[in-house]
Amino acid sequence: MRSPVKSVAPVVALDIGNVCIALHRDACAARLGYSSIANLFAANPDLLHYARLLETGKISREELLDYAATRLPVRMTPAEIEEAWCSMIGDEIPGIADTVRDMVDMGLRPVFFSDVSQVHLRHVYTKLTFLPLMRGAVVSCEVGAQKPAPAMYEAMERNHCDGGVPALYVDDREDNILAGRGRGWFAYHFGTVPELREVLLKLGQRRDWEPGPGL
């Protein structure tokens, strides 16, 4: 028996890293004594595991920093490690703020949908000029799972779409996009801001969603 078609909510599920804000992972790795993030985690696979635990809220910031301090090739204090860890958070992607304003003007509710730790999320929030336009967040450190795990998508549908699906999902990772499409989401594999604006234009012309109260 075919499953029922889910309703479409006037929501945009918006990834953060490399969609809203630039990430400089290799620059972060250099601060920690490695030539690239791949080399950092290849030399310290347990550190990658700890980073994922932090991003899913399963360990504290202090646990990660204390562990990292014993594994790095350079002597650093926990405060220095945290500063280096946050150095991967770059500047806001040019044009994304105007694009989010376009979403709001169309009657859409932009909601963050991201794998991120509380440490990085606080840092991200200080850099985004359009933060007041956002209408919430589904983040891995609160859900306890990372995309493309179903729990993340279920949390978005449950908490922001009244059990339906978002009108648009934007992410730079293909595996995450495919997981969304598998749930019936209209998903755009992010390339550039001008391309995203074209997707928004087509979405507005199609009008498969209806703005709700207060939009």
Give a written overview of the molecule.
The structure is a single chain. Helix content is 46%, strand content 15%. The chain contains eleven helices and seven strands. It has two domains: 8-22 and 91-206, Rossmann fold (3-Layer(aba) Sandwich); 25-87. The strands form two sheets. A five-stranded parallel sheet has the order 5-4-1-6-7, with helices on both faces. It has helices spanning 25-31, 37-43, 45-55, 61-69, 78-86, 96-105, 118-125, 140-143, 150-160, 174-182, 193-206; strands at 8-14, 21-23, 89-92, 109-114, 137-139, 165-171, 187-189. The two termini are 36 Å apart. By secondary structure, it is of the alpha/beta class. The longest helix is centred in the last third of the chain and has 14 residues, at 193-206. Helix 1 crosses helix 2 (37-43), helix 2 packs across helix 3 (45-55) and helix 4 (61-69) packs across helix 5. The model is unreliable at 211-215 (pLDDT under 50).
